[in-house]
Hints:
alpha/beta, FAD/NAD(P)-binding domain, Enolase-like, domain 1, 24% strand, oxidoreductase, FAD/NAD-bd_sf, disulfide bond, NADP, Pyr_OxRdtase_I_AS
Amino acid sequence: MTKRIKTDLCVIGAGSAGLSVAAGAAQMGADVVLIEGHKMGGDCLNYGCIPSKALIASAKHAHAGINNQPYGVADVWPAVDYAAAKDHVQRVVDTIAPVDSQERFEGLGCTVIRENARFISDTEVQAGDTIITARRFVVATGSSPLVPPIDGLDGVTVHTNETIFDLRERPDHLLVIGGGPIGMEMAQAHRRLGCKVTVIEGAKAMGKDDPELAAVVLDNLRAEGVEIIEDAKAERVSGDEGQITVHTSQGDFTGSHLLMAVGRKVNVDRLDLEKGRVKYDRGGLKVDANLRSVTNKRVYAAGDVAGGLQFTHVAGYHGGQLVRSLMFGLPAKARTDHIPWVTYTDPELAQVGLTEAQARKKHGAALTVVRSEFEHNDRANTELKTKGLIKVMVVKGKPVGASIAGHMAGELIAMWSMAIANGLKMTAISNTVLPYPTYNEINKRAAGAYFTPKLFESDTVKMVVGLVQRWLP
């Protein structure tokens, strides 16, 4: 028998975006139905951010003792238990899972339905045997790994981020198709855990990042033994279990396992969006600056399916914006200029706002680019973490972008994210007193580099200082 529910808000998808909206709305007194057809917590908890960073942590410990000698300690070659590393990954997921659980959200007052949802009209969705009529809908169904139609792919086992963490037997030779963040993170992690690794990239590895900073990361990965083949489009795959060959324009590459990491596709196929009068394309729902559907004003989108940057923190940001809009009727336009992202290789690569190339194209002669090398930071020298660079793009005294490659770049980018989000000037960074010695002084040194020509290379300043010195008692 079909059941019917009327509610204030129906959220479809229990990943970062959907959970943020549901938790905020329910705690503020709205009647909320939360629908999830797969795992609570979505991709981030189960297949993405959490398991990948846990595996990277295991790999970092495996690698830690290999270069001990410069510190006065004997090198130690690790005995890696690949299955035990995967146990660590699962323990981390299990530790965090209760925060995203059905029980927690029911405790917050949400009605949670564990079925796939589909629109049956512009005011209703159906999930299993339940029809939900809502004043507002939030579609937050996220994205899934993209597996392109490469000839022969259906004849071999293809891993994605949704299956690689379940693999218990260590690959002898992992082939990775895709040289973006996911591909490079998993390549380095598996290399450090004892696998031979070849990355096959159809264009340039880490091609969306500043090439000068990407080179810092790629040089280190190659030094660790990761083979990176660029400009090698995968044309065909052949072989069978344990002996897979990827045929490319740059030659053939054979390994024991294959990981596909070429990008993601938004999850819209099962939603019957046409019946909900919701316009979309392969990039996601068509929404305005308020994340509201351009064709059905009852429907909003959040996270990957909103068609923008595909990051967990963006999904959470969208959730916060929508709670503000849906609960209080306040304008809540989503912006992107202050959104940071990080590739968690070693060294890390972080970006917020415009890259140097983007800033030059947009601002031309008004742009100033300031730099600071990690080798000039005292803390980096004490820990021998001196390979790295920060670039800050500045227009009229305000940062419009920052790019960092180096140790803890993901932590260092936070200062620039805050500055850009709040419209702060470079003086806000240069005036900040930081504890010594810390890596954050790299940020302050970059801010100081912006003022150096104005203070120390200006004839006017020197003339004024000269006059003041003669006049002072």
